[in-house]
Amino acid sequence: MGRGEQIAPEEGEVILRATAERFSGPLRRPAPVVVEKRVAVRLTPPSLQLLSSQHYVRQGGAGLVVARIGETAIRSGVVAGEEEFLSYPVPGAAESERLTLFGVPWNVADPSRVRLFAEDDAGNRSELAFIDLLAASPPRRDTIDLPDSFLERVVPAIESRTPTLTGKGPLIERYLEINGPLRAQNRQRIAELSRDSRQDFLWKGAFLQLPNSQVRARYAETRTYRYQGRAVDTQTHLGLDVASLARAEAPAPNDGRVVYAEYLGIYGNVVVLDHGFGLLSLNAHLSSIDVAVGQDVIKGETIGRSGATGLAGGDHLHLGIFVQGTAVDPVQWIDAKWIRDNIGTKIRLP
Ligand SMILES: [Zn+2]
After folding, report:
1. Which domains does the chain carry?
2. Ligand 1 centre and the CA of 261: distance in Å?
């Protein structure tokens, strides 16, 4: 390998040159390979100016922030705990004005862990704390017993639709493979779906809950699973479970585009809708699906029927709201006042 030129410690442009002498045989001596690359030298991180105000959030809640980002930034958005939310250009504004819809993960309680960031191509990074108040909302605790009758109903059914599961070993071990690793994989798949989210507000007003339904389980319930009297697993439920009649017509919670409409592991038959700017809804455990990927739906339109597919104890509808792959509390999104006060005050909604 060859020589590189020293990088001068000042801003501007340098040329990196790498030279490789090639192996010479007895008859010929090939010319060395030279690779040159122009790189910008930056020492000052991109500027970051907060444009929106009054950011009151809570654990498991969502929020929207608008900021002016310096032109050298190539990536910007919000970091919250371990999660990252990328910014989008504000519609109709200068390119430097960016909005970020973000979620506060259910287990993040410290406001200083939620910050705006901007990075340039040289790796310089600015960060800015912007949360005025992060209200505590610790998870509720619950215990769920796992009778064999339940495992016998759900485990083989999920395995038969999930090629990565072997279906070998004791039933409880197979269940734990579904409840832990498969759950994480399924959430990862939803995060991937949000990468192609449309840069637009596709939704209008409050999200819909299943009509005439009762709440069966809330967001951020940390469940201890017990098998034959002993604790075998702990997972946190990150959606809203509601039930009405069996095979009830499930409405599209808001306007959006269908980005997934098939079986997805623990969630059974699901319809995932893209509502724009990284906001997705997951409608899970359906007995049947009435829409197809690529279809635009309007709020209230029937997208399928409730059911008990996937990891479900009985017929119900699991509504999940995801912001760039992070599950947030759906209760805020079905509340018109919360939307007005927390999103509508930061940006002009359609
Ligand atoms: Zn659920």
Report:
1. 12-41 (no CATH), 48-135 (2.60.40.10), 140-344 (2.70.70.10)
2. 18
